[in-house]
């Protein structure tokens, strides 16, 4: 079964991914079946069908089987049959038109080695066939043996034409030589007497009996190796192991050697040039173009039937219409241009026709995208092109190419100008910063009260009055930010400046130096806070603040508000999976409907948000960038892809072409249909102000104030 290794390497060399195995229905033919399946599995090539032909099968039966094979997309055939059946089979192959360009026929070793026994008509029907056979190198001993063979044959059969000595004749000679060598090795060590068979003899051979040295001879013969007429004659466990195979191409009335194969080097052209390549091959149809190994079994001159979704909106992606006068289908859009570019990048020509997925009257879509995919898997189309998202449940029915457009699902929500908010004065600081600032106001006032209570008469009185003093003192420091002009234009000594700071800040005289120290630090902190607050608020009031009205889809769900989605899209199932009820979901078919629904809002019969895929969102926002924004998490999907039936050989080649188009042409195609969205992004960027002030930005200030107040308090207690 070693002949399968060069066959497998040859199939892998030409990158054929599927084949049909045709074999003779007898012990000879069936012997190769399990080994062939394993050999093809090792190179990731599928055996699409096994056709069994009985040696006595009629020509009509063979012809019917060939027409069945012709309807398949596979064009690579491996034939394992003896010359008598093979000669009849290939005549019918030629009659069925299966010896034309695009077909590949490979024959196994026995038939390849017996090509000389076929007549001219048989050879004419096998033009372009490839075959493998064991390689027997030319040597002086072999040339001399062939001369002696011819002389002996002519002397014994003078009236007959000399029979060509083939590979099996040479192997037979080497086998006898191996037996002779084994007899020499056994020599006198074994008893040469014969044990007569006790059963009734049916022939002279039976009467001879069994040699007692037979077992020794068998062991020597089953494992022998020597240099014979056939070259390296090597038998392992009773099986001949050819070391080198010859790959031939049938041309004219003979065979043309195109290369060799060995276990060490694989396929190579010549012994002195062992590069992994073959000589030029003449394929069926008298062509030198390497067959791709498959064809789409369609009508209309083998045109690919490409299904496309028909939709009223989102025409930038796909738009299919039929001319009412000429009845010609006109398909345009981003997806179509990408597919045309991909087909143009293939290494071979693929003709195709676009077929809209519409009702018989042609007025509306025939179903959802999932139903379009099911039609593809049922054989109504050869491919589906459009804004088809690659999903796991769809991949159970069809094969997708690599994605050619970005994947993901997100939300579109209206944006609002926060300058119109009644609480905008709270916006400059985050909630955590407001709380921390208030806590430090109280803490600083408490520390000053403790430090001044025993020595300062103004910090005494009724409990309510003292609590009021704590809050009054701490919060009154805010006026310093508005009173700094008192000393901004005059030069003061350090002592005068300190007294002004203290008096302006609290309106009271502080006696304790510790409390003065605490207040000075705190006034500095308040100065920084108020300056930052003023700057941030000023920016908010003078620069437009555009923020999404919602940042989380769960907020919309909890409020019982509505969400929109694209008609016939899988997004509806996603929303239901998130817990939205049927009454909360509304479908739309154009970008204009998106705009109207979002403007109305849920309270007026519209929606609070639209959930859609990123390519649609990007196109929508490019048009309505001043009114809406994308928000919330992005739910990952694989993106848009082209769909083909399960096992289609086009998937691999189209995926490679998608990568090429993505690198070389995708930007131009995108700009043609969607334009450059950078200008809209720049406008939005100019309208979005800096982030609100965070606690992290002032941690150092609060740390200084806290340490100052706490240190003064500890010193006071000590």
Automatic annotation (TrEMBL):
The protein's topology relative to the membrane is: Multi-pass membrane protein
Q: Which GO terms describe its cellular component?
A: membrane
Q: Where is the Ionotropic glutamate receptor C-terminal domain?
A: 303-676
Q: Where are the transmembrane segments?
A: 433-451, 471-492, 513-533, 698-717
Alphabetized GO MF terms: ligand-gated monoatomic ion channel activity
Record keywords: Glycoprotein, Ion channel, Ion transport, Ligand-gated ion channel, Membrane, Receptor, Transmembrane, Transmembrane helix, Transport
Give the subcellular location: Membrane
In Pfam terms, one family for this protein is Lig_chan
Q: What is this protein called?
A: Ionotropic glutamate receptor C-terminal domain-containing protein
Question: What organism is this sequence from?
Answer: Ambrosia artemisiifolia
């Amino acid at each position: 079964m070693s002949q399968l290794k060069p066959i497998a390497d040859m199939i892998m060399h030409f990158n054929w991914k599927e084949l049909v195995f045709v074999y003779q229905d007898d012990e000879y033919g069936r012997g190769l079946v399990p080994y062939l399946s394993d050999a093809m599995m090792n190179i990731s090539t599928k055996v699409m069908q096994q056709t069994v032909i009985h040696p006595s099968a009629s020509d009509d039966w063979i012809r019917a089987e060939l027409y069945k094979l012709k309807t398949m997309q596979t064009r690579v055939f491996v034939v394992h049959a003896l010359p008598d059946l093979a000669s009849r089979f290939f005549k019918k192959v030629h009659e069925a038109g299966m010896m034309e360009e695009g077909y590949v026929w490979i024959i196994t070793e026995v038939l390849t080695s017996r090509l000389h026994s076929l007549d001219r008509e048989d050879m004419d029907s096998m033009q372009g066939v490839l075959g493998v056979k064991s390689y027997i190198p030319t040597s002086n001993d072999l040339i001399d043996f062939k001369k002696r063979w011819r002389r002996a044959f002519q002397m014994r059969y003078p009236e007959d034409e000399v029979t060509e000595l083939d590979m099996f004749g040479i192997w037979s000679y080497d086998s006898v030589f191996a037996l002779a060598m084994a007899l020499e090795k056994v020599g006198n060590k074994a008893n040469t007497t014969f044990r007569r068979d006790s059963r009734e003899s049916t022939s002279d051979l039976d009467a001879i009996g069994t040699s007692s040295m037979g077992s020794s001879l068998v062991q020597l013969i089953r494992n022998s190796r020597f240099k014979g007429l056939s070259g390296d004659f090597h038998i392992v466990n009773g099986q001949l192991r050819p070391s080198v195979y010859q790959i031939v191409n049938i041309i004219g009335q003979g065979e043309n050697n195109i290369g060799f194969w060995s276990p060490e080097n694989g396929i190579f052209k010549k012994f002195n040039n062992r590069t992994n390549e073959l000589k030029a091959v003449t394929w069926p149809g008298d062509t030198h173009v390497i067959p791709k190994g498959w064809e789409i079994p369609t009508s209309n001159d083998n045109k690919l039937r490409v299904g496309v979704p028909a939709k009223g909106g989102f025409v930038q992606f796909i738009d299919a219409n039929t001319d009412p006068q000429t009845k010609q289908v006109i398909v345009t859009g981003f997806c179509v241009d990408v597919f045309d570019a991909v087909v143009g990048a293939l290494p071979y020509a693929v003709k195709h026709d676009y077929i809209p997925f519409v009702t018989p009257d042609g007025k509306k879509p025939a179903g959802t995208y999932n139903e379009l995919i099911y039609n593809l898997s049922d054989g109504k189309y050869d491919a589906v092109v459009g804004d088809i998202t690659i999903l796991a449940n769809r991949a159970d029915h069809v094969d997708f190419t690599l994605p050619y457009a970005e994947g993901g699902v997100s939300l579109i929500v209206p944006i609002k100008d926060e300058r119109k908010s009644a609480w905008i004065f709270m916006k400059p600081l985050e909630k955590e910063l407001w709380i921390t600032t208030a806590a430090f106001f109280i803490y600083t006032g408490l520390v000053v009260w403790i430090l001044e209570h025993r020595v300062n008469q103004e910090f005494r009185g009724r409990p309510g009055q003292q609590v009021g003093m704590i809050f009054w003192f701490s919060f009154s420091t805010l006026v310093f930010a508005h009173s700094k002009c008192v000393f901004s234009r005059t030069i003061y000594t350090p002592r005068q400046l300190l007294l002004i700071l203290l008096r302006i800040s609290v309106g009271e005289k502080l006696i304790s130096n510790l409390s003065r120290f605490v207040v000075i630090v705190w006034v500095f902190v308040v100065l920084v806070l108020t300056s930052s607050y003023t700057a941030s608020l000023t920016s908010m009031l003078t620069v437009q603040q555009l923020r999404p009205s919602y940042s989380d889809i769960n907020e919309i769900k909890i409020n019982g508000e509505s969400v929109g989605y694209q008609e016939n899209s899988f997004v509806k199932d996603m929303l239901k999976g998130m817990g939205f009820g049927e009454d909360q979901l509304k479908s739309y078919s154009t970008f204009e409907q998106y705009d109207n629904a979002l403007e109305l809002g849920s309270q007026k019969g519209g929606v609070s948000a639209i959930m859609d895929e990123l390519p649609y969102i990007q196109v929508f926002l490019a048009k309505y960038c001043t009114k809406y924004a994308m928000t919330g998490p992005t739910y990952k999907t694989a993106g848009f892809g082209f769909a083909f039936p399960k096992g289609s050989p086009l998937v691999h080649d189209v995926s490679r072409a998608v990568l090429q188009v993505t690198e070389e042409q995708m930007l131009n195609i995108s700009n043609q249909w969607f334009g450059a969205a950078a200008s809209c992004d720049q406008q939005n960027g100019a309208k979005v102000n800096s982030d609100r002030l965070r606690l992290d930005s002032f941690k150092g200030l609060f740390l200084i104030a806290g340490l100052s107040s706490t240190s003064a308090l500890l010193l006071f207690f000590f």
